[in-house]
Write a structure and sequence with these properties.
This protein is an alpha+beta fold. It has a domain of 102 residues: Thrombin, subunit H (Beta Barrel). Helices cover 12% and strands 31% of the residues. The chain contains three helices and 13 strands; from the N terminus they run ααβββαββββββββββ. The strands form two sheets. It has a six-stranded antiparallel β-barrel. The relative contact order is 0.16.
């Protein structure tokens, strides 16, 4: 009998596709660079000056894109929140984001950003020293918390009307991703879906907005904003892939259409669990509405949001 044919190796199509795309892109980039720099056709250098744009920093078109305008409108209304965590076993500083609700210093964030904190501080863009904050309300079941700082003349955000939020709307996510130095990170995408439910290790969150705007660790508590500069949601979590599933640009925000459980509920603070004699550890728990919506940044690039 003839010997059996040698076994063939089956190539994984995903890996092949990536390799082909990278190789093809690299070939195009190399050709463009070679053409632009005239590589290989001459060994002499040109004395022609580098071409610079005639548009300078005083041109009225600078910062005139819609997203740039949205970021500018929210610049004084988005803050970074630092929570000192020390439970006797683990200690460190957690970082998240918050939005200004009232001119006299009320700030909204995620409950999981301040969970277990012994001290909470708030810092505005452009400031070098943080301000001490007090947790005055926490709704763990909906992952929202209300802070208070001593201040006047702050610029509150504006919430969108719930019935104006649509799938396909362009949105902008603003937050202090990875606790990086400088101002907040601004990313953009669309509203991918409404009324999503996600299940975490601690429970479930319902009525969420799904977005493909990139959301990272440290974005928790930051706003998801429409192109009118109105807050449509509070960023809370992202989906992460594992060995059996893939997840790309799947983020979640607590939407204004969430009714009594959404960010608009802060207009009725009597419905919140008020902190008595210290930081809150929990709040009212409704059916299938318990637990935080994601992890926050603890000084390293970890699990968003």
């Amino acid at each position: 009998m003839p010997p059996p044919p040698p076994p063939t190796k089956r190539r994984r199509p995903g890996i092949v596709l990536v390799a082909l795309i990278i190789g093809f892109a690299g070939g195009i980039a190399g050709a463009v660079v070679a053409d632009e720099l005239n590589i290989g056709s001459s060994t002499t250098s040109s004395n022609s000056p580098v071409q610079l744009s005639e548009v300078d920093s005083n041109d009225p078109s600078i910062g005139d894109t819609v997203i740039a305008q949205v970021a500018n409108v929210l610049a004084d209304s988005v803050v970074t929140i630092s929570s000192v965590v020390d439970d006797g076993i683990e200690s460190g500083e957690a970082t998240g984001t918050g939005v200004v609700l009232t001119a006299d210093g009320e700030i909204l964030t995620n409950a999981h950003v301040i969970d277990g904190a012994s001290e909470v501080r708030v810092r505005f863009a452009g400031e070098t020293e943080p301000r001490q904050a007090k947790v005055i309300a926490s709704e763990v079941g909906n992952d929202l918390a209300l802070l208070k700082i001593e201040a006047t003349g702050l610029k509150p955000v504006t919430f969108a009307q719930p019935d104006t939020v649509r799938v396909g709307d362009t949105v902008v996510a603003i937050g202090y991703a990875l606790a990086l130095d400088g101002g907040p990170t601004v990313t953009s995408g669309i509203i991918s879906a409404l009324k999503r439910t996600i299940v975490t290790d601690s429970g479930a969150l319902n009525g969420l907005i799904q977005t493909d705007a990139p959301i990272s660790s440290g974005n928790s508590g930051g706003p998801l904003v429409n192109l009118r500069g109105e807050v449509v949601g509070i960023n809370t979590a992202v989906a992460r892939g594992d060995a059996t599933s893939a997840a790309n640009n799947v983020g979640f925000s607590i939407g204004v259409e969430g009714g009594p459980a959404g960010p608009r509920a802060i207009a009725r603070p009597g419905e919140w669990h008020r902190a008595q004699g210290g930081l809150p550890r929990g709040g009212p728990r409704g059916p299938n509405r318990r637990g935080p919506g994601g992890d926050h940044h603890r000084g390293r690039a970890g699990q968003p949001s």
